[in-house]
Amino acid sequence: MFADRAKIIIRSGKGGDGHVSFRRELYVPNGGPDGGDGGKGGDVIFEVDKGLNTLTDYRHRRKFHAQDGEPGGKRRCHGANGGDIILKVPEGTVVTEAQSGKVIADMSGENTRQIILRGGRGGKGNMHYATATMQVPKYAQPGQPAQELEVKLELKVIADVGLVGFPNVGKSTFLSRVTNAQPKIANYHFTTLSPNLGVVDLDNSGFVIADIPGLIEGASEGVGLGHEFLRHIERTRVIIHIVDAASTEGRDPIDDIYKINRELEAYNPEIAKRPQVIAANKIDAIYDETDSPVELLKMEFEPQGVKVFPISAVSGEGVRELLYHVQSLLNSTEQKPIVFEQEFFPEDVLITENLPYTVTVDETDAHTYIVEGPKIEKMLGYTNLDSEKGFAFFQRFLKDSGILQDLEKEGIQEGDTVRMYGFEFDYYK
Fold first, then answer.
1. CATH number of the 345-429 domain
2. Residue 340 assigned ligand-binding role
3. Which of 159, 173, 186, 340 could form an SS bridge with 313, CB 3.0 to 4.6 Å?
């Protein structure tokens, strides 16, 4: 069965707890603290697998989680880091947050691997808490908790050209003629219940073409299997309307094109603006030449800039001319792949938590400001400050949580230092 949607629950690994222990050696009656740090929890990573073309692996298993970090040990032993979990998905999979529907990751184009949830940082052992006044610390830092999130996976087919048309107009026959695809073909409605992809070879060039299953009126509102099918056309750069020019089932081809365009416009106005071409199919079944339906189509749509090609998907007549025109349309449109931008950042959940923090001036240096508290510690544990996205989130966090405002109240000036749990930053507006 073709599977193009799934809903799963993912969880990163919990950080291992820091350890409380003290040196116990012969002739060392009062050994100092030697509790080791806990290991980092594993990340949840999505990765593109070129060999996959469905989301079937996620239809029967719903929960996926990375390994927890191991706790620290005696003699400064560091706990082992938890193993990451790598979830393989086909190219074109869009990961969204289940409740809001906002995009977390689009696994297409150059984005072939992305960390979705970061594991919790391991807690520090008691060896870090020894001071001149506290030489026997009986406290170690617990590991940071895991992050859990329910996400939706949607496969949006990656194809240069999309075939659209009402059921039974000959899309599957056309696809089987021009590509190496082998779709099921029969004379009944909704034969195609999943998108079929094929590669068209034209001399030294070619393109990927997708047969989008038959549309009906109301598809953009979810009638029938409307939304299931329309999502697959979102990435296409050129649209081929296939119509039954012979009206073998009594349909009006001109009316059909307007109806499909209305559905595309209602679903996503950007799709309706993309270059289109009309394939007037089944010309081998036209017996009355006095009132040519192909000429009527040309008179209606060519003044609008949409070319009409009379074809027979069965005999192959007119197909080659149509394909060369489609190739020219592709050559004249931007080849940059359509990628859905990230809208939901799992780390943002931390900002909404009502955890305390403090902003103080360092007693030994009036130009250094210290920001501490569980809110800060938790944010730093989940954020990779070495990455561009991670640092952008960190800056947004400082602003949205009110930390920058509190620093300004304390009198911070440009060039002063901000210190947070081992991280130091220069402050600039």
1. 3.30.300.350
2. no
3. 173
Query: Annotated binding residue at 55?
Result: no
Q: Has 333 been labeled as part of a binding site?
A: no
- Answer yes or no: is 349 a known binding residue: no
Q: Which CATH class is domain 1-155?
A: mainly beta
User: 208 vs 169, 191, 347, 415, CA distance in Å?
Assistant: 20, 21, 37, 54
> Is 193 among the annotated ligand-binding positions?
yes
Q: What is the pTM of this model?
A: 0.63
Q: Is 190 annotated as a binding residue?
A: yes
* Alpha-carbon span 183 to 281, nearest angstrom: 18
If you search the block for the tokens 């900002």, which residue do you land on? Answer: 351
DSSP state of 84: P
Residue 284, marked binder = yes
Residue 313 counted as an annotated binding residue: yes
* Inter-residue contact 71 to 40 (CB < 8 Å): no
Query: Per the annotation, does 167 bind a ligand?
Result: yes
Total residue length of the chain:
429
**Does 171 belong to an annotated binding site?**
yes
Listed by start position, the domains of the chain span: 1-155, 161-332, 345-429
Closest to 165 in 3D by CA, of 234, 210, 224, 212 = 212
Tens digit of each residue's pLDDT (9 = 90 or more) over 38-54: 999 999 999 999 888 77
Tell whether 174 is in a known binding site.
Answer: no
- Secondary structure, 3-state, 163-214: EECCCCCCHHHHHHHHCCCCCCCCCCCCCCCCCEEEEEEECCEEEEEEECCC
The dotted CATH code for 161-332 is 3.40.50.300
pLDDT digits (tens, 9 = 90+) for 351-394: 445 567 787 888 777 788 888 777 676 666 656 666 666 677 77
Is residue 266 a known part of a binding site? no
Query: Does the annotation place 168 within a ligand binding site?
Result: yes
